[in-house]
């Protein structure tokens, strides 16, 4: 409804909205998805990639624990602050307990979608190195 902001994760392409079989008219689809925010992560690979990167982060933590006599909490904090590698979902870094990363978000705007285009929303990261 108009009182909600809908996020759609993992849509494959803009043209998918028009090519999938449905009982809805094109105008009904446009009205339903107008204003939605979307990311272009394939649904099939979305969670696989994050699980893969999490496992590598945990492996890094485990290796660091074996090489140190510190408590696991101290090691965990230290390792998270120093993790920096390229994973399946992009660059893996953590800051203040949260993952630093870049996610492309686009907004569906009906008047522009007729030309197979979306509006790119400005990128935000906790650091100023956003591309």
TrEMBL record:
Gene3D superfamilies: 3.40.50.2300. This is Receptor ligand binding region domain-containing protein. It comes from the Eukaryota.
